[in-house]
Amino acid sequence: MAEKELPGSYGRPGPGEIAVVGLGPGGEEEMTPRARQALERAEVIVGYRTYIDLIASLAAGREVVVTGMTGEVARCREAVERAAAGARVAVVSSGDPGVYGMAGLLLEILAAHPRGKEIKVEVVPGVTAATAAAAALGAPLMHDFAVISLSDRLTPWEVIADRLEHAAAADFVLVLYNPRSHGRPDHLRRARDIILRYRHPTTPVGVVRNAGREGEEAWIRDLNTFLDLPVDMVSTVIIGNSQTRVLDGRLVTPRGYRL
Amino acid sequence: MAEKELPGSYGRPGPGEIAVVGLGPGGEEEMTPRARQALERAEVIVGYRTYIDLIASLAAGREVVVTGMTGEVARCREAVERAAAGARVAVVSSGDPGVYGMAGLLLEILAAHPRGKEIKVEVVPGVTAATAAAAALGAPLMHDFAVISLSDRLTPWEVIADRLEHAAAADFVLVLYNPRSHGRPDHLRRARDIILRYRHPTTPVGVVRNAGREGEEAWIRDLNTFLDLPVDMVSTVIIGNSQTRVLDGRLVTPRGYRL
Pick from A24, A93, A226, B251: CA 20 to 30 A from residue B141's CA? Predict the structure, then answer.
């Protein structure tokens, strides 16, 4: 039959493609047009339930593959298999997918796949929690900063502690991701105690919950007092350097301009 | 006359507002809806010429105040004065305005202004060069990273060198902003030499020019060889940690998942 000769009438001739898409802090207001286009183009959207819910209107009418929070490996394998079978797949992360997100794992799994080289992959950046939280607080990241996750699920605590120590010693502003969870309620205090060896107890500290999304809350305290705040897994903690100050209720690290 | 009694008929009754807006890497494709709305709402747009050109269609029909690259202080003062006189002002930065951008300086100038407390300010985050460059290279920022500017215009070189040293010692991935300019052609080599005390010469290095905008170019080399690349002021340099590898031509720092 003539129809069989048409391209695509046997199913896809070759592998599909994967976009690893950063949604930004959460709301559709924070998602770039490029991210939106990548989702609109996708036939299959793969992600953690909470992220899929953030883009419900875009997910509607598409096949959605949902896994639990710790199902990252399964999620990426599924995305690669679907793309290898010809689908256009979007893997979604909140924030930027390249900052503690899904991009690295996906590229690792892709490189190990027999058809990995044939699948086109694009990483679509997004506004990451560090800068979304900074914007809510003022401008604490105007000078050199270090981004550290306090989760020891994949990294030994000794490595984390060493990084905290060096970052504090070199007067970096510190941005802490995954600052506290039920499994490790004490990490934030241990991190604070390391930093206190190098910084004054009145060094300003900003905490933002749900940065850039509905229910955003921001506080400014100092190293002495911030542990009393309701810091959790949807919080980002920013610890000032020696120059950071509070100006009219905003956290500002001067870049050094003479005024 | 009755009309005179209408609100606003004498000009604005009080101060206006300022949005410090991150344009993202450059193209309108990378600007969030929230950033676009802030620009649409503005009566006056203040910025460096190159950034204004990136948003020509949005700037059209609005008053535009342009200053040179080193006119940051004048730019922020002008923005604050205009807002104090009642205008809705947008100050634009490429990338994220809170990362070596205009947000901090603006808040400093605002805090020193007699009407500063009355002016409403919003910082609108954008996709910063670190993650736009990372996306172009693969996924090098999947683990803890340090962001360092090599510009010594406002920071003594000794401080920069000390931060490079500590970040290298603690095995952070390094992101270098302002990596090279005519005024300091040698900083990048000096930075590389510091890092080489802690990292193997074959450590992968990624360089991206014009990340996320027209004319984007990306290269992957190593600490031994990357200085030959055409690194300039519109480039971002990402230096891998001890775990970073090149997979199918992409730069990936594994997070530590067992595959």
Answer: A226
CB-based contact B142 A101, cutoff 8 Å: yes
How far apart (Å, rounded) are the C-alpha atoms in residues A132 and A123?
20
Does the pLDDT value for residue B54 go beyond 90?
Answer: no
Q: Where are the domains of chain B?
A: 15-124, 129-252
Domain spanning B129-252 has what CATH number? 3.30.950.10
Query: Taking a C-beta distance cutoff of 8 angstroms, is the pair B255, A100 a contact?
Result: yes
Mean pLDDT over residues B184-202, rounded?
Answer: 95
Task: Tell me how far apart the terminal alpha carbons of chain B are, to the nearest angstrom.
Answer: 78
Query: How close B106 gets to chain A, by Cα (Å)?
Result: 9
Q: Report percent pLDDT > 70 for chain B.
A: 94
A positions 205-224 inside 8 Å of B (CB): 212
3-state helix, strand, coil in chain A (%, to 5): 35, 25, 40
Q: Does B26 touch chain A (CB under 8 A)?
A: no
| Spatial CA neighbour of A127 closest among A25, A21, A3 | A25
Architecture of domain A130-252: 2-Layer Sandwich (3.30)
Of residues B61 and A168, which shows the higher confidence score?
Answer: A168
CB contact (8 A) between residue A132 and residue B154: no
Closest chain A residue by Cα to residue B37? A29
The highest-level CATH class for domain B15-124 is alpha beta
Token representation of residue B70: 């080193």
For B29, the 3-state DSSP assignment is helix
- For the stretch A44-76, what's the b/e string if a residue is b when 16 or more beta carbons lie within 10 angstroms of its beta carbon? bbbbbeebbebbeebbeeeebbbbeeeebeebb
A7: how many CB neighbours lie within 10 A of its CB? 7
**Looking at domain A2-127, does it have CATH number 3.90.79.10?**
no
